[in-house]
């Protein structure tokens, strides 16, 4: 089970939007029931990575010193560079 952390400024609005899009992507690619999504404020993201999260997707700048892979969540909101972001998420799931 992969743990995916979705972070935004407060852990509510934009992370919820991105969480829905990421879940749809993962389910459509055969990963249903193989991941857990946790939403949080960006200020909590590093702690989740330190505790063993497999991926951080954030709609803000990544915190320094991350111990897990990071993918920008902005492409999931804007559509710009979305293919590359989706590939990066799927690459983590394939590991």
UniProtKB/TrEMBL annotation:
GO terms for biological process: phosphoenolpyruvate-dependent sugar phosphotransferase system. Keywords: Sugar transport, Transferase, Transport. The gene is gatB_1. This is Galactitol-specific phosphotransferase enzyme IIB component. Residues 3-60 form the Phosphotransferase system EIIB component type 2/3 domain. Its EC number is 2.7.1.69, 2.7.1.200. SUPFAM superfamilies: PTS system IIB component-like. InterPro entries: PTS_EIIB-like_sf, PTS_EIIB_2/3. It is an enzyme of class 2 (transferase). GO terms for molecular function: protein-N(PI)-phosphohistidine-sugar phosphotransferase activity. The keyword Magnesium does not apply. The keyword Transferase applies. Pfam families: PTS_IIB.
